[in-house]
Write a structure and sequence with these properties.
Largest sheet: 19 strands, antiparallel
Helix content: 10-25%
Distance between the termini: 36 Å
CATH topology of the largest domain: outer membrane lipoprotein receptor (LolB), chain A
Radius of gyration: 25 Å
Shape: globular
Low-confidence stretches: 3-24, 269-289
Number of strands: 25
CATH architecture of the largest domain: Clam
Strand content: over 45%
Structural class: mainly beta
């Protein structure tokens, strides 16, 4: 299931005009005018910036006995503290998100290049969400789309906190829910809290309303915490944490917990560098001058140089491999020797729990070191080498679709490790067999 926000940037000059003519008010609804103006001003002046987001994803299920496809019963069961939820699966993502002209674009962490692909194309399975970096804030605070009401005042952490409720109707909403088959715009409502003294936004909660029954979602909600970050000698309001929850009519609950870190001004694309020392077994430097690409149809046996621990690593992390057998390059008099280093990236690391767990491992090999420099390559997975996983037979899954007919990435190989212990780690030296696709010139 995907949750996506499409931002709309509209002026709100009338709010600014009111704020400039009023004295600092004490009435909560008059304070709201200043809050909206402050958030809208912050959004309009925010620079291009880049953050790293680490996402912990879990899928949970109710115990047996709860009827499926009946949302009232499912919602009641989830609200019952005696109903213990069972963790069905868990995985992690690490991504870079750049915010440019109020638009969020994504890449794997440290990749250093951003394309036009959406988050759902980059991460083509499980729950994803966007909108934390201003799309919701724009609609709620910088346009006349939302209606508001005051809720309460409280003391939190030694400061006065004001809480407001809001609602955005369907005609004014740009909030979209989607699964692999349906995409639907919905109205939404929620609440937010602000510091009564500084008028800084602290937290916002959002709930999707009137969800179409054919989407098979009983409840969709998001919560975002915001904090100040100083860039260009100015303070800006940026998300620090976000949680998205999707309760489906089959009794499963998907939960994403996202932490944002390392936010800084984005100055443009950077070059992806590999700073590891050259491997002694690599080809001579002059071979690099002769070899400008890897031709199609060559077989690569690749062994892992590190353990793959699902409790520590995440989709997006870089990994290393080595050639387990030499590869001869036709018509070049070049042989890539055993031990030549390859640079790869984890694209999925999903642990499915049950009586016995199974681990789904998605990996993409991006380059191979030739003459001490990375040479791009495109490989397709053919199979695992028996006996190197220290577990039962490893299965190869087909490349996963990105949804809505998007073409699968043939260069991502998916390996399934069935009937393993919940603490299983893919060992150092595990080998898989790949074949090169069309040549990629450097």
């Amino acid at each position: 299931m995907k949750v996506r926000r499409i931002s709309q940037i509209l002026a709100s000059a009338c709010i600014a005009a009111i704020c400039l003519t009023q004295q600092p008010p004490t009435d909560p609804m008059q304070l709201l005018i200043q809050v909206r103006h402050k958030v809208a001003q912050g959004i309009s002046h925010i620079p291009r910036y880049l953050c790293t987001e680490s996402v912990e994803r879990e899928k949970l299920r109710l115990p047996s006995g709860v009827k499926q496809d009946l949302c009232p019963e499912i919602l009641e069961a989830f609200a019952n503290p005696s109903k213990r939820l069972r963790v069905v699966s868990a995985d992690r993502l690490r991504l870079d998100v750049a915010v440019i002209d109020k638009r969020e674009i994504y890449s794997w962490v440290g990749e250093g290049r951003f394309g036009d692909q959406s988050l759902s194309q980059l991460v083509n399975s499980g729950l994803t969400s966007t909108g934390s970096f201003g799309a919701f804030l724009t609609t709620i605070f910088a346009t006349p789309s939302a209606t508001f009401s005051y809720r309460s005042e409280s003391q939190t952490g030694g400061r006065r906190v004001l809480e407001y409720a809001f609602r955005v109707r369907f005609l004014d909403s740009d909030y979209e829910l989607s699964n692999s088959h349906i995409r639907q715009r919905v109205p939404y409502s929620g609440s937010f809290t602000v510091d009564a003294e500084t008028l800084d936004l602290l937290k916002i909660e959002i709930h999707a309303d009137d969800i179409p029954s054919e989407m098979r979602f009983c409840q969709v909600s998001s919560q975002m915490d915001y904090a100040k970050l100083r860039m260009n000698d100015l303070d800006f309001l940026l998300p620090s944490e976000a949680t998205t929850r999707v309760l489906k009519s089959d009794g499963t609950l998907a939960v994403n917990r996202t932490v944002f870190s390392g936010c800084h001004q984005f100055l443009g694309e950077s070059k992806l560098l590999f700073d590891d020392p050259p491997v002694s077994a690599a080809s001579p430097a002059e071979a690099k001058q002769k070899l400008t690409g890897i031709p199609a149809g060559l077989t690569f046996y690749i062994g892992l140089t590190q353990r793959i621990d699902p409790t520590k690593l995440a989709a997006g992390d870089l990994i290393k491999g080595v050639l387990a057998k030499p590869v001869e390059i036709p018509d070049s008099h070049v042989t890539l020797p055993k031990g030549t280093l390859l640079n790869g990236r984890i694209c999925e690391l999903l642990m499915e729990y049950g009586d016995l767990a199974e681990l789904q491992f998605g990996v993409k090999w991006e380059s191979i070191d030739v003459g001490g420099e990375p040479l791009p390559l495109r490989l397709a997975l053919e199979g695992a080498v028996p006996g190197t996983a220290k577990t039962a037979e490893v299965n190869v899954n087909p490349p996963q679709l990105a949804g809505f007919g998007a073409q699968a990435d043939q260069t991502v190989g998916y390996l399934l490790f069935p009937f393993v212990k919940k603490t299983y780690q893919i060992p150092v030296g595990f080998q898989s067999r790949w074949v090169s696709l069309t040549s990629v010139a450097k």
